[in-house]
């Protein structure tokens, strides 16, 4: 940062390759030192966004780690007491909600990965063909993506209600003792919530894959087709591998979405009674009775550590071609 | 499959052996069934919203009897306090989008058009920040805002809690990373000759940013603005965390309270939900292309 320079020559490999072969060999990067006023400008352009990013994203994240090793009621800063690993020990051994939450987060991930994401891919593949009304179908599947997850929760609440919801009418159980309270019954509500989440996730995946499929070189598909490959072979052996960059993005999005899952369960019952999630536990301990900031932060740190896995995969894939 | 032939001429279509005219009956049946299933939850909410409570009580929710009108929408609008909530959404959304695009475009310019020691590391830091679950930083951010002392004429809580600013700050900080990533990819793809000429003219960095690069980024900025509009409007979490006064909540967070306000009046609740959908549907119809472009911009550079 101390000696910023300006790139006045394309630094991308493509840019260099584009130079005529006969061109005189010059240094790939002709750089000049920035003037004093440019340095000030650059400092402002980098400094202001970085300050915001550090102050409101990274410092709070580090503070979460710090607070997870303390005992604090959230009142005065002077009340903070060191607690060692007591919070983590409580979370792993004594917290009644932690292991159910872990199971639900895993279930959330598996359900999105096995049902919602492949469904989105299937829709994208079907709609990528030149079929009549492709745009109309796309619009239909895309509508839930525009809705907030909180609203998704409410809309499905109306659908799932015990006595007046459409689902129980369709099953013929509405008003009878067999009627299921889909969002209330702890043995089924996680599945009901997952269906609602799928409704939104599949459309999102579809849009990303539609863009990815358009980017696959059509001649690849033709060549495979000419060689006698059927549609399925062409897709699994040629098209799907060719979409590797998008596949990584989708994998990362699916994992991160399942860790971030919060809004739907919070709208339903604040993440209790069958809908425990790690993210919801953080907030329960923050705003709940008898604030236990340390325990809430321990949940946050567990969430952070798990999230770092997909984040690292994504970043190393994305930035591995860049020069450091 | 017709996909494999669509860019070919008629001649090669014959060579491949499939025509464009293949009807895809099976595909259509599948897609129609899926579309109906996809529309049912929203359709049911709309159907419920259009019927007076008295009629659904009399005939049952699963019936066609009785009147259909917009009375519930009118009642929900006034009783639910929607004008205030929409105003709050606007107060939070507009400054956030402007701040996010301003900050992220400067940062993106600095990392993609100027070479300095830590530019890639900084870009990674920004990108990673956006990928964290917000709950990871929620507790310290809440405490930081609570401990910020502010004069009472400025904030009636004496701190940043219960202010629009808290939500604007959190959303801005969280969204900058994503927009910086997308914009830096976009700016990197612009030819270096553009700023070269400006350099020869002796134009400073700010002029390169404001007069040369930013005008060329209009498509990306428009796509991101649309995407952020939806993201911020749909944000449920930050207002839930920071705002305690019900009358300061934006629409998306406030609808949750309607479940209490419209206690067991599902017709009104459905109408409230539909009112909340309307702005998104308008944006969808008007700016669909921008929105989709924004979504895919972020993933195309894998």
UniProtKB/TrEMBL annotation, chain A:
Picking any one GO biological process from the record gives: transmembrane transport
Which Pfam families does its entry note? BPD_transp_1 (PF00528)
Q: Annotated region Disordered: where?
A: 1-22
Q: Which residues cross the membrane?
A: 40-69, 106-127, 139-159, 190-213, 234-256, 293-315
Q: Where in the cell is it found?
A: Cell membrane
Give the CDD domains listed for this entry. Answer: TM_PBP2
Mark out the compositionally biased spans (Polar residues): 1-11
Gene Ontology CC annotations of this record: plasma membrane
- Record-linked InterPro entries: ABC_transporter_permease, MetI-like, MetI-like_sf
Question: What membrane topology term does the record carry?
Answer: Multi-pass membrane protein
Q: What is its main location?
A: membrane
Q: Which UniProt keywords apply?
A: Cell membrane, Membrane, Transmembrane, Transmembrane helix, Transport
Q: Which PROSITE patterns match?
A: ABC_TM1
The entry's family comment says:
Belongs to the binding-protein-dependent transport system permease family.
Q: What is this protein called?
A: ABC transporter permease
Q: Which organism is it from?
A: Arthrobacter psychrochitiniphilus
Automatic annotation (TrEMBL), chain B:
> Which GO biological process entries does UniProt record here?
transmembrane transport
The cross-references to PROSITE patterns, in alphabetical order and at most eight, read:
ABC_TM1 (PS50928)
**What membrane topology term does the record carry?**
Multi-pass membrane protein
Q: May I have one GO cellular component term?
A: plasma membrane
Give the transmembrane ranges. 29-47, 59-78, 90-111, 123-142, 162-183, 216-233, 266-287
Classification via Pfam families: BPD_transp_1
| InterPro entries, alphabetized | MetI-like, MetI-like_sf
Could you tell me where this protein is found in the cell? Cell membrane
Member of which family?
Belongs to the binding-protein-dependent transport system permease family.
Q: What is this protein called?
A: ABC transporter permease
């Amino acid at each position: 940062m101390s000696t910023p320079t300006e790139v006045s020559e394309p630094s991308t490999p493509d840019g260099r390759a584009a130079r005529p072969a006969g061109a005189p060999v010059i240094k790939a990067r002709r750089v000049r030192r920035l003037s004093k006023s440019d340095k000030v400008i650059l400092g402002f352009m980098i400094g202001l966004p970085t300050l915001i990013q550090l102050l409101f994203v990274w410092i709070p994240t580090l503070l979460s780690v710090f607070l997870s090793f303390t005992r604090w009621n959230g009142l005065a800063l002077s009340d903070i007491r060191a607690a060692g690993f007591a919070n983590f020990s409580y979370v792993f051994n004594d917290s009644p909600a932690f292991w159910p939450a872990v199971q639900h987060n895993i279930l959330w991930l598996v359900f999105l990965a096995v049902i919602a994401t492949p469904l989105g891919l299937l829709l994208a593949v079907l709609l990528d063909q030149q079929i009549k009304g492709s745009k109309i179908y796309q619009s239909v599947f895309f509508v839930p993506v525009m809705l907030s997850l909180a609203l998704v929760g409410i809309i499905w609440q109306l659908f799932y209600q015990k006595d007046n919801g459409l689902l129980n009418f369709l099953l013929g159980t509405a008003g009878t003792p067999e009627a299921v309270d889909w969002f209330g019954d702890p043995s089924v509500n996680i599945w009901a919530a997952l269906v609602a989440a799928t409704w939104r996730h599949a459309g999102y995946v579809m849009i990303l894959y539609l863009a990815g499929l358009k980017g696959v070189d059509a001649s690849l598909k033709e060549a495979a087709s000419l060689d006698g490959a059927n549609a399925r072979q062409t897709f699994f052996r040629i098209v799907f591998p060719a979409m590797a960059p998008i596949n990584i993005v989708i994998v990362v999005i699916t994992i991160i979405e399942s860790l971030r899952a919060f809004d739907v369960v919070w709208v339903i019952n604040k993440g209790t009674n069958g809908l425990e999630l790690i993210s919801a536990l953080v907030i329960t301990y923050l705003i709940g009775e008898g604030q236990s900031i340390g325990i809430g932060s321990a949940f946050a740190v567990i969430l952070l550590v798990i999230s770092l896995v997909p984040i690292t995969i994504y970043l190393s894939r994305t930035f591995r071609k860049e020069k450091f | 499959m017709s996909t494999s032939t669509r860019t070919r001429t008629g001649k090669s279509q014959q060579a491949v052996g499939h025509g464009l005219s293949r009807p895809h009956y099976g595909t259509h049946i599948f897609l129609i069934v899926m579309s109906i299933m996809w529309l049912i939850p929203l359709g049911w909410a709309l159907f419920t919203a259009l019927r007076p409570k008295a009629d659904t009580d009399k005939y049952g929710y699963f019936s066609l009897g009785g009147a259909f009108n917009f009375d519930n929408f009118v009642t929900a609008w006034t009783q639910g306090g929607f004008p205030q909530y929409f105003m709050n959404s606007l107060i939070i959304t507009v400054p956030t989008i402007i701040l996010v695009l301003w900050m992220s475009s400067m940062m993106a310019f600095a990392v993609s058009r100027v070479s300095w020691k830590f530019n890639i590391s900084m870009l990674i830091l920004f990108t990673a920040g956006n990928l964290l679950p917000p709950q990871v930083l929620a507790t310290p951010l809440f405490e930081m805002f609570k401990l910020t002392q502010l004069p009472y004429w400025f904030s009636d809580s004496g701190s940043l809690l219960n202010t629009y600013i808290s939500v604007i700050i959190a959303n801005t900080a969280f969204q900058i990373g994503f927009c910086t990533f997308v914009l830096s990819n976009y700016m990197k793809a612009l030819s270096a000759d553009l700023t070269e000429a400006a350099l020869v003219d002796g134009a400073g960095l700010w002029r390169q940013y404001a007069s040369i690069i930013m005008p060329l980024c209009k498509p990306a900025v428009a796509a991101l603005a649309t995407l952020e509009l939806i993201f911020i409007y749909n944000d449920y979490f930050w207002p839930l965390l920071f705002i305690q006064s019900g009358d300061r909540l934006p629409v998306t967070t406030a609808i949750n309270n309607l479940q209490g306000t419209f206690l067991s009046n599902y017709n009104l609740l459905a109408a409230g939900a539909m009112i909340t959908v309307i702005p998104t549907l308008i944006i969808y119809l008007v700016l669909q292309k921008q929105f989709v472009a924004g979504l895919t911009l972020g993933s195309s550079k894998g």
